[in-house]
Amino acid sequence: MKRAVFLRFAALVALATIAPWELSTALAQSPNPAMRFVTKPGYTITVSASGWLPRSVVVFSVRAQTMSAGVAARTNAHGVLTVGITGLSMCAEPTFAMRDVRGKSAQLRAPGLGCPIPRTVPTPVLHVLSGRQVRPKTFTISELKPMSINLPFGTVLRIAQPGGGMPFIPRANARYLVPLAATSAPPPGGATSLDFLAVHEGRTAIDMFPACRQTTPACAIADFLIRVRILPPVATG
Q1: Does 129 share its domain with 142?
Q2: Phi and psi dihedrals of 91, rounded to 5?
Q3: What is the model's pLDDT at position 29?
Q4: Residue 178 has what pLDDT?
Q5: Per-residue three-class SS string for 151-201
Q6: Residues 208, 168: contact at Cβ < 8 Å?
Q7: 79 close to 50: Cβ distance less than 8 angstroms
Q8: Domain end among 76, 101, 133
Q9: 115 and 150 inside one domain
Q10: pLDDT at residue 211, rounded to an integer
Q11: Judging by DSSP bridges, how do beta strands 81-86 and 45-50 pair with one another?
Q12: Has residue 104 been placed in a domain?
């Protein structure tokens, strides 16, 4: 009994004598990054995760009902990434996920609150609080036709449609591709584009659904697929 107490005391003393930067490095090299909810003024939901490598690129995504959104960010010097979210309710029972370029991942589900689940969930705004948002490499598709492409993990696939409208509505599997913010009138020619962030490796497809099929009378234009192979994460140092 005395020996067990002594060992616990010795472990606490050893932990207390570790320098802060050494402790953060040890946590950053943890094989299992951990996510948790925290409270930050001004945000309806805030998610924080530790255990990543310091200043490493991590892809964050959130899903609820048919809504999905994501952002790429670099962790801070202690291997922590914190994302504040506005415009999303816990009643939607969202699921949050993070994944880095080395394939380490973490997931967090909203607790069941017993409140009514909304039928439609608007796309929330994501704010990187601890860490720094990064601009992923972007691959652009401007010719709308069936095709197959390879897309590295953590990069963006931009589907550009000329004329300032969306004649096709891209539909993607949120396990692999989550939408970023739509943009209006990027060059050239006042086109409209929609960006998808690659959040998980594997084979998937984007269903290009004709928008005119939702009008009355509906058009007879067929949809088509853009087949996407998302390559596994590749460590860079």
Answers
A1: no
A2: -65, -25
A3: 46
A4: 85
A5: EECCCEEEEEEHHHCCCEEEEECCCCEEECCCEECCCCCCCEEEEEEECCC
A6: yes
A7: yes
A8: 133
A9: no
A10: 81
A11: antiparallel
A12: yes
- Same domain, yes or no: 81 and 125: yes
Domain count, the chain: 2
Looking at 133, 166, 192, which one is the last position of a domain? Answer: 133
Q: What is the pLDDT of residue 163?
A: 63
Let me know if residue 206 belongs to a domain. Answer: yes
Number of Cβ within 10 Å of residue 188's Cβ equals: 9
Range of the domain at 170: 138-231
User: CA-to-CA distance for 76 and 129, rounded, in angstroms?
Assistant: 10
Mean pLDDT per 10-residue segment, the chain (237 residues): 42 37 40 89 96 92 88 94 95 92 87 86 92 90 90 89 72 85 46 82 92 80 91 69
CA neighbor of 144 nearest in space, from 109, 169, 125, 113: 169
Q: Residue 28 sits in a domain of what CATH number?
A: 2.60.40
Phi, psi torsion values for 186, nearest 5 degrees: -75, 155
Residue 203 has a pLDDT of 96
CA 79 to chain centre: 17
Indicate whether 25 and 129 sit together in one domain.
Answer: yes
Q: What is the Cα–Cα distance from 71 to 128, expressed in whole angstroms?
A: 9
Residues 42, 79: one domain? yes
pLDDT, residue 195, reads 87
